[in-house]
Amino acid sequence: MSREDLHSxxxxxxxxxxxxxxxxxxxxxxxxxxxxxxxxxxxxTDLLTSTDLLIxxxxxxxxxxxxxxxxxxxxxxxxxxxxxxxxxPKSLFLGVASPAGLDxxxxxxxxxxxxxxxxRYGAVLAGGDTCRSPGPLMISVTVQGEVESGRAxxxxxxxxxxxxxxxxTLGDSAxxxxxxxAERQPERxxxxxxxTPTARVSLGREIVQRQAATAMLDISDGLxxxxxxxxxxxxxxxxxxxxxxPLSPAFQRALGEGSALIDLALAGGEDYELLLTSPDPLLAxxxxxxxxxxxxxxxxxxxxxxxxxxDGTLYQCxxxxxxxxx
Length: 326
Ligand code: ADP
Ligand code: MG
Prior knowledge:
Blueprint: H1 3-22, E1 28-30, E2 37-40, E3 45-55, H2 67-83, E4 88-99, H3 104-120, E5 124-133, E6 138-148, E7 163-167, H4 172-181, H5 188-195, H6 201-210, E8 215-218, H7 223-234, E9 237-241, H8 249-257, H9 262-267, E10 274-278, H10 283-286, E11 293-300, E12 304-308, E13 314-315
Parallel strand pairs: 4-5, 9-12
Antiparallel strand pairs: 1-2, 2-3, 3-6, 4-6, 7-10, 7-11, 8-10, 9-11, 12-13
The chain binds adenosine-5'-diphosphate and magnesium ion.
């Protein structure tokens, strides 16, 4: 495949091509296409597995965060996929391809951050791989977790009339990144949301225990793009109320200066918040785990996503979600 082909195919087109070749297997409850693969165990639990790459120059720049923070982020973004299925993370595997010149003390810090972050969620580093990189620093992370048998919350399953809920706040990480790219120093809160995100494990566990969600995923590529994955699975659409998007005080302050920044909350990416659908209109008020949920809209029959302004007109987001090739 030529480079031009990959550009027009896009990241998800490429994944679909690989998926078609891979086929399915009896031991897989869920293979390619969700936040984790799901494998049934005889003991009443399902094994969840997910893997992620973090490449210097693509996912991070060494000047923008400390190595310890990079280690924390590498663990958290991977564990976020376990949270997205409502699972409990157990074991992590860390692959490091390091440029030969990198300081050993720096790599110690990377491992330290990674192990500490895994420990925050009750998981441990259980293996990995180490080699030299002829180019950038590359990190490969795999996580295994558990969920009660048959209870993993998939991207498929949303129904017409289900309410859309999102955890925490949106756009903080993308706003920090846009500040860094413009060579400005982001507010401390925003920078922390970008460099050291928190996986919403407790919230995901509570959602599973309440059997509250019909579909769920974590927002890594932007709200609209990731909602698109849920809608693709159920063949339905969604109506979102713009004034209900949960925004942090720091994000709101910045929004006051340029209302186009709302697109960062809609499509910016790297929020690592949970997006879920539920028939329960009271879910946000009963859920106990931090950081809580906000109702932002509803699943509807008409395909596509409509963004409603308070005055009744529709808003058009000018950004697409993140795609590695498009
Ligand atoms: P997430 O953003 O939740 O990490 P991705 O968008 O990266 O999910 O991937 C979507 C799905 O495609 C996942 O099920 C993932 O395991 C699968 N996938 C991505 N790349 C590959 C690949 N190269 N080979 C097989 N499966 C892949
Ligand atoms: Mg995910």
